Amino acid sequence: MLQPQKTDVPHYTQKFLRHLKRQKYAEETLTGYGKDLKRFTQFLQQEYNDIVRMSDIQKEDILDYLTALEEEGLKPNSVNRHLSTIKALYKYLVLELDFPMDIGARIKQPNIYTPLREPLSFDEIEHFLQTAEKVSRFYFVFFSFLYHTGSRLTPVRTLRRENVDLQQQKVYFPRIKNGRDLHLPLTEKLYKPLAAFMLDYRDIQTDYVFPSSVKPNQPVSATHVRKKLRDLVKLAGIDKHVTPHLFRHSTGTHLTLLDVDQKFIASILGHSDLRSTARYQHLHVENLRPKLKKL
Is residue 234 in some structural domain? Predict the structure, then answer.
């Protein structure tokens, strides 16, 4: 199987990452793929003394790698993510570089149910935003934007001023996920603080709604957002593991509890598959209890 030549795996993984960058994949996605592929490359180099070639890799090599990850204590979801990365790499190699066989496609991806984290309650959201408003106007508007649009971190973080129409009270996300775009209205609760915020920031030379405080010509970094979020959660006294994505889950949860039709929730969250939105349906269980008591 092996040829006595130095490995070319890093060469192909870097080409793949550059390809994703040209496709305008989010910074967090590129970082995640990069870490996964580096780990995969290190495994192959250790197993085959740095002489394995990309064309030499077989299905069994990938399965051995997944087993090694499990033995290291990675959770099934994490192992599944690594497999998704490898599958994406091989799809690129076949479609873009004319590799003869998609090894990744020969490995079945297990269906792993990931339960939704407990969302923030209505009261917790209100308390958090009140705390943020007292501490930082920038982050009060930022996290209000996450919650009131149900958006992911990257589209909000990299939102350009030109894509916010204050006159029509609309926002346009050119790219949310998988190359799709999204138009959303600005609700009154978001429009007022956002309009005032953008007016006050109008003299700053930047294209972004939420610019970096260090480099205004760049968007605020994801690392800085997460750090500020941890500080605000602690200050607000919220005893939950809160991530930027939890605001999105909370939006979907709250809209479901308010009896908003799942089709509308799917449109707001940018879900192309209603099965993603259907995960919020379980939230109605307690609401059904009084009805069942009538039996």
Answer: yes
